[in-house]
Amino acid sequence: AADIGQRSAISQQAADTRVRLRGLRVEDRLERALVFTGPVRLSDVEFIHDVVLDDSIFERSLEFLNCRFLQRLSGRDVTVKGALRLDGSRIDGAVELGASKGSKRQPPVLDLRGLVVDRSLFADRLTTFGRVRGDWIRIGGTVRARGLQLHPRNEVLDGRSALDLSHARINGPLDLAGHVAKAREPGGRQRTVFGGDAKLVGLTCEQADLDGIDVRGSLDLSSCRVGGGLRVGVALVDRGADIWWRARIGAFFSLYRSQVGRVEMSGCRTDGTFHGIDLQLSGSLFADLAGRFRTRIGGDFNISGGDIKGDLELDGAQIVGRFVFV
């Protein structure tokens, strides 16, 4: 922590100072607002205590590559004028012994509320044990988090939430599909898994890819604006071995009052109701067969008041409840 603080002080005086740290273990708690004028890259760094960078400013890029945070990482109201990378990192969300016996909810293990990134955010294969909050973030480019896995600790510590990206504004695509490496390698496949509810209310992005996602709670995309396509269907993993990931939602799936260019959810399985009330679609909604996978809605399929300019494809779909389109 002292080394990081010292480099921060140097970076305030010298332009284009690069910070590159690799293979370190930081045993002190790091909690301060920092200013870096050069790019910052931390690789294979282990943080024993909380890392709190709230209100920090990074004039270039910020990278945490394959890092491990034993407790939590907080970057509230941080400004990154380059790209932000969290690829391959892990946040363990450790708490004091006996914390689960109380009634106090713990802070998010990854807190990015109010984050502003001028370029893109990458978090492929990021794994957290605890909930993630990123409401009101502003991203100037792409958000790609392929193979993202979020595992809430329990309802006392995290409630039922796994991810909160409410009112996020992304000036590019949102990619939350599974990670499949181009070449065979250990750990080359990692499915996107949310161990609780995923709240993306009011999200704005150019397009969204959630093919093959496994949400073990609800998926709430109410009042969102997706200019292009929204994909929540079947993802190909290995054609030769006939391996696919089917999008699964453990509770309801909501597009209530959303504006979307096109919805592709063929082969998706949701155990609750599909809420599409007042949905505005400039294209079509596909919820038919995807190869051997049948679209299954565990409750009602409700698109009352919906304005669909294109087609509504439900060939072979199974709807356990009612079909409502008034």
How would you describe this structure in keywords?
326 residues; mainly beta; 15-stranded parallel sheet; twelve-stranded parallel sheet; globular
Task: Please provide a written account of the structure.
This protein has 326 residues and is mostly beta strands. Helices cover 5% and strands 37% of the residues. It has a 15-stranded parallel β-sheet that branches. A 12-stranded parallel β-sheet has the order 2-6-10-14-18-22-28-32-37-40-44-48, with no helix packed on it. The longest helix is centred in the N-terminal third of the chain and has 12 residues, at 2-13. Residues 5-15 have low confidence and may be disordered.
Write the layout of secondary structure elements.
Blueprint: H1 2-13, E1 19-22, E2 25-26, E3 30-31, E4 35-36, E5 40-43, E6 46-47, E7 51-52, E8 57-58, E9 62-65, E10 68-69, E11 73-74, E12 79-80, E13 84-85, E14 90-91, E15 110-111, E16 116-117, E17 121-122, E18 127-128, E19 132-133, E20 138-139, E21 143-144, E22 149-150, H2 155-158, E23 161-164, E24 169-170, E25 174-175, E26 179-180, E27 189-190, E28 193-194, E29 197-199, E30 204-205, E31 208-209, E32 214-215, E33 219-220, E34 225-231, E35 234-238, E36 243-246, E37 248-249, E38 253-254, E39 259-264, E40 269-270, E41 274-275, E42 280-281, E43 285-286, E44 296-297, E45 301-302, E46 307-308, E47 312-313, E48 318-319, E49 323-324
